[in-house]
Each structure stands twice: as structure tokens, then as C-alpha cells.
Amino acid sequence: MQLLHNVNLKEYNTFHISENASFFTTIHSATELIEILSYNESKRSRIQFIGGGSNILLTKTLEGITVLNKLKGIQLLSENEDTAIVQFMSGESWHECVMWCVSNGLGGVENLSLIPGTIGAAPIQNIGAYGVELKDVFVSCEAIHLVSQERKTFSLEECQFGYRESIFKTKEKGNYFILSVTLCLQKKPTFKIEYGDIKHILATKFNNHVSIESISKAVIEIRSSKLPDPKVIGNAGSFFKNPVITKQLFDTLLSQYPQLPNYPAENGIKIPAGWLIEQCGWKGYKVDKIGVHERQALVLVNFSDAEGSAIYQLSEQIIISVQQRFNITLEREVNIW
Ligand code: FAD
Ligand code: NAP
Q1: Does residue 126 have its Cβ closer than 6 Å to ligand 1?
Q2: 229 with 293: CB under 8 angstroms?
Q3: Is this prediction's pTM over 0.85?
Q4: Tens digit of pLDDT for each residue in 220-276?
Q5: What are phi and psi of 121, to 5 degrees?
Q6: Residue 267 is part of which domain span?
Q7: How far is ligand 1, taken at its centre, from the CA of residue 120, in Å?
Q8: Number of folded domains in the chain?
Q9: 111 CB less than 6 Å from ligand 1?
């Protein structure tokens, strides 16, 4: 175990915020993780994990030990004529695993192409895009408890997945390291193309050919045209969740804003947060080194060397203005550290 002191984390977070980790190490195996947990047993320092750093905002020095996850491996556990059960180690890149599935003719995750980050972070917020969520293909994940060092396999039900939610963000927050994730992939998939521009791109660019590969390519094309590339402009994707509001509030707002976009949700009506933020005049906003992306108001950006706390303050201002105008309280999706 090599524990480094005062390591700058700029290259380990997609916002490119320059904050230090007091102690930093990289793990390549479960054994290396156990070594760190054992070393920390008496010290009881805080331990935090970074995968791709694409869903965190650093606002201060990270005390304790920061662990970069590089656990690699993909293993086909079983298959029949309809499905394949595949285990992915948590340090694998999510997008590269999606590409692996696409090239092996395995469906279910093609709508989730080009989401940055690692396999191990995917269950944390039940990643989702274009009408598909991790939970739709999820079988289980194996995790290690950070104090007892016991291994536990979490089933789909035990993960308590919700909209950008899981047990790892609520009851078990900060208690486990996810070692691997097992997915059930389809050899004869049912495609989801109703969402956003997918159908349009399939018609205009792929001669209406619907396949695992064409959907993946369509999603990659849409995402590349709409979202800022974190390699070019620091960002962590959607900064806020889309709020789900009551029918009563929805009716009141609709009478004032007849064009209010809305989608049915499990326990109410989902309103795109990007629309609310745009209505409050934030889209394309820029002050000093930070701002709100010009094509997607849900994405806050670091143009160059900004402080994480400045981005946090901007998110606070946005929450207040949306609250005042629409009586809706936006919730942050990005983890604030
Ligand atoms: P990190 O940012 O490294 O970590 C996020 C959280 O998970 C932290 O709390 C961390 O401690 C914890 N964590 C990470 N790995 C582990 C582990 N192995 N065990 C335990 N805890 C762990 N998200 C979506 O849902 N849908 C999208 O379409 C989407 N699009 C995006 C587009 C862009 C341009 C960007 C920058 C982000 C986008 N995101 C999206 C957000 C982000 O990519 C996902 O949340 C992703 O799963 C984060 O993975 P990561 O490895 O970067 O996590
Ligand atoms: P979009 O297509 O412009 O749509 C705006 C919002 O409306 C989306 O957030 C989506 O909610 C909702 N929506 C659109 N069509 C819908 C439908 N048919 N049924 C239900 N809800 C619908 O969104 P976008 O910003 O370009 O993003 C496209 C997809 O990628 C979305 O699913 C989005 O969540 C995902 N994405 C996520 C992140 C992130 O960091 N979390 C970043 C970029 C993109 P949902 O968000 O609930 O899908």
C-alpha cells in the first residue's frame, strides 16, 4: 500500500477543481482495499472513494484517506439463448463496458452509452438516461463494509433503487465499497427509442435501422452534440435532479405557465429542472470562471481554475431563484465534498 500525502485531485474530478487529498492511494484489488481498511482500523480516519470523479464537487481539502478505484475485470458468469449474466469489476469504465456489451450483441445498456465514470458508482445513484436506468438490468452488486470488512451481496430489492437514488445514498451512505456489479443483458432485447431525439436520429442517420449498435451510436451522437465534454470544460453533468411535484402544485403552475414541460412520475409529476433554471434566466450565465452551460441549463461549468465553493454558491443562487419563482426546491444530484 502506497499512501501519498497532500495529493492534488484536479485530474481526478471532471469539474477539474484543484483541491488536495490529505492522504491518497490507488487500489487494484480487493486485497489492497482490505489492507487500507485494516491500516485504518485503529485510526478510524474518514475514507472516501473516487471512481471517475464525474459526480462530485470538491469544495475543500479532503481529510482522511481518498482511494482511487482501479479494480478491473469482466466475467461472463452464465448464459442461455436469451440472456447473459455478466460481472463487471467496479473500477471498469462504465462506457467501455457498454461498448463491450454492444460489440458482443448484448442489449439493455445501449441507452446508457457515454455516461462517464465507473461501474462501481453506477448503483450509487442508479444512473439513468433516455428512459433506461441501471435497475432495469441490475442483478446484484458485491460490497465490502468499511468497518467490519465483511462482504455482502446486495440484491436488486436490497439496493432500494429510485430516481437517482439507492440505499448507498441513504441508509448505507458511506458504509460500503462496491467491488463488482452483475448485470443481466439481453440477446433479444426490447428497444427503448421513444425518448428524446433517438427516433429522429435513427430515421435521419441510420435509415430507421433499430439495433443495439445503432441506438448506442444515436445516443452518443445526441449526447456529444448537447453536453459539454468534461475534458474541455469542467462539469459533472446534471447538477440538479428533476423535481417531482404534486398534482396540486402542477395545476397551479400550469395555469401560469401553459408551456410547462412535464412527465408522469411514480409519485407525482416530473418537471425538467433545466427548463425551470432556464426560465429564471440562468442559461448561458457566466461570471468570472464559472457559469451555466449555454446548451444545457442543468449543467454548471468550471471554465478555468474555479473554486468548488464558487460553483456551490452559484448552485445556491439557482435554487433560491427557482424556489422564489416556481415554489419548487431543487435538489442537488452532484455529491458535495
Ligand atoms: P465518482 O464521481 O467518482 O463518485 C460518485 C459517488 O459514488 C461518490 O460519493 C463516491 O464516493 C461514490 N463511489 C464511487 N465509486 C464507488 C465504489 N466503488 N464504492 C462505493 N462508492 C463509490 N449520470 C447519470 O445518471 N446519467 C447520465 O446520463 C449522466 N451523464 C453525465 C454526463 C456528464 C458529461 C457528466 C460529467 C456526468 C454525467 N452523469 C450522469 C453523472 C456521473 O457520470 C454518474 O453519476 C457516474 O455514475 C459517476 O461515476 P464516477 O465513477 O465518476 O463516480
Ligand atoms: P432532454 O432530452 O432535453 O429532456 C429534459 C428532461 O426531461 C430530461 O432530464 C428527462 O428526464 C425529461 N424527459 C425528456 N423526455 C422524456 C420522456 N419521454 N419521458 C420522461 N422524461 C423525459 O434531456 P437531456 O438533458 O438532453 O438528457 C438526456 C438524458 O440523459 C436524460 O435522461 C438525462 O437524465 C440524461 N443525462 C443525465 C445527466 C446527469 O448528470 N444525470 C447528464 C446528462 C444527461 P430524466 O432526466 O428523468 O430522464
Answers
A1: no
A2: no
A3: yes
A4: 999 999 999 999 999 999 999 999 999 999 999 999 999 999 999 988 999 999 999
A5: -85, -15
A6: 234-336
A7: 9
A8: 3
A9: no
